[in-house]
Automatic annotation (TrEMBL):
InterPro entries: M3A_DCP, MetalloPept_cat_dom_sf, Neurolysin/TOP_dom2, OpdA_N, Pept_M3A_M3B, Pept_M3A_M3B_dom. This is oligopeptidase A. It comes from Olleya sediminilitoris. It is an enzyme of class 3 (hydrolase). It comes from the Bacteria. SUPFAM superfamilies: Metalloproteases ('zincins'), catalytic domain. Its EC number is 3.4.24.70.
Amino acid sequence: MKTNSIYSFITCTVLLFSTSCKDETTKTEHTKTETAMSDNILLQDYTGPYGGVPAFDKMKVDQIQPAVIEGMSQGLKDIEAIANNTEVPTFKNTIEAMERAGHGLDNVFTYYGIFSSNMSSPEFREVQSQLAPKLSDYRSKINQNEALFKRVKAVYDASQTNPLPADQQRVTELVYKGFEMNGAELDAEKKKRYAEINKELSSLYNKFGDNVLHDEENYITYLNKDQLDGLSDGFIKSAAKIATDNGKDGQYAITNTRSSMDPFLTYSTERELRKQVWTNYYSRGDNGDQYDNNTLIAEILKLRRERVKLLGYSNYAEWRLQDRMAKTPANAMGLMEAVWPAAIARVKEEVADMQDVAGDDLKIQPWDYRFYAEKVRQKKYNLDSDEVKQYLQLDKLTQALFYTAGRLFNYKFTPVKEGKVPVFHEDVKVWEVTDKDSGKAIGLWYLDPFARPGKRSGAWATTYRSHTTFDGPKTVLASNNSNFVKPAPGEAVLVSWDDAETFFHEFGHALHFFSSNVKYPTLNGGVRDYTEFQSQLLERWLSTDEVINQFLVHNKTGEPIPDSLVQKIKKASTFNQGFATTEYLASALMDMKLHLADPENIDIDAFERETLAELNMPNELPMRHRTPHFGHVFSGEGYATAYYGYMWADVLTSDASEAFKNAPDGFYDKAVADKLVKYLFAPRNSIDPAEAFRLFRGRDAKIEALLRDRGFPVPTNN
């Protein structure tokens, strides 16, 4: 996560991203400072149309380091001015001033994020490695500034007796809590060690992410024309193009990313090749070479434990969850343990069905699961995933996103003429977002859809500028980023149903950005086990009749998807939920258990193996993210002890979706949609998430809806 306000440096490790979707970032612009006049384009205020846009066409790697250093220097001057103010501390001269501080770094972090996530290179990784400890030092100088914290505490203490206006009170409490959680009240010796630990961790996080990216880029499986049985024509053409681009003309490349691995494991009849591709993917960061991450993980866990002990906490999870919806590790574990038995029981049923198809001569292995699950899907539901894929075209799905945003949020998306807005790669397209009725400018939406070397795997959303009314209303610059396999020229981009859901999910984050109605930058942040809820909820609109009937058309004939096929999709909606739930929950449980365990002399490989055995993890499938490449947790801290948050958010999602299901006009009911925007999207972090959900639903969420959604038994005593 990255945000512009100083509060972000107190609460987050800057510019360390999750490796999946749901990377929520926020940034805004403030009043100009002297750094805005810098010769370095990365430090300058955005110029051009739409309230100014990033100069992506002018950014260069060699500009990053000097821009960051100059921006940090100005940021510290801003902080010193606040800390040394001789006036009595007030919200305006302390908290509000902090919301403006560090403006010189705002734009730099946008470009830094693009180089890190979308356009990485060996040159940038070297710069990133050099900057990581410097950024850590910068953060420490802010959150350990005693004079600054004294002023923050004075404003906070006064607000407990004489509350401020609601949004100011929320900002004050968040800023104060950020300082408190990050050692502002430690003595000098402990503060010194705290800062040293953060610096060490920043370098380890960078190294972890670089190692995973190395294995993704270097473990490519090349096929010849006799090894393509079962694969679709579109996949084959794409694999041929990737191979040619890599200097392997006449061969076919299976890259070491989920978007390439998943369809190959689902359709290829070449079992030994499936094993090879599976092994490459799930061994990222775990190959016993210089890019192996196991030792790094052990060191990260020890440093995290040492750091929170300085603050008086017994483990990292206890410290991290205090400001999340779950509040305690026990609450998070309680949710996961409530669902786990039903998930692994369903896996046993799924494996039995697959074993019937495979026969007695073949025992289902992890590299067989997707392949035989597809066979069972066809047998049980007469549903062929590749047939469904023919109706899931990326351009049509993009129009479906716009339709949904129009119905729920009253937004209109208009393509921006090529060349009017700078982009960092030719694949990136841009749309203008306006209110359908008034024409009011909401912002711009950038889409970077395709996988390429140097782009991190997964899918995510981010902002280049967030809405606030702090120093005048700001339009939003939001982006969605995916890793779809680029098709051969003239071919449609066809995606799986799961990938289509993810596309809707990430767009949910973008809508969360666009709908923001907050004054202060800090309030654009979020609570990790809540911010996935809004985007998970938006996935539900893919399955609505309005979207299906208008946008799911055959890529060759243009014919709408047959109703008979739609009914098969709906009947199979809970199919393979054992696999989906178990692979996810295994990673979430591992995340929590690693941080609750004693990290002294921990053997990561043994811990993973033994923990899975204790959980009775089915042998036929792996965790979604094995520990050595679990970037959500070990390339930064955004999801550390927080990967459970997807499940927590899914409880909210399932419950909230029933509000739409039971409404007179279903998922497009205006009254429910208005409440959705008012209480669950627009407030961002300006009100407590639990209270926001109660305002929408009239009560707290219940787990029964989640169990029903997944086709699991609902306990009769609940």
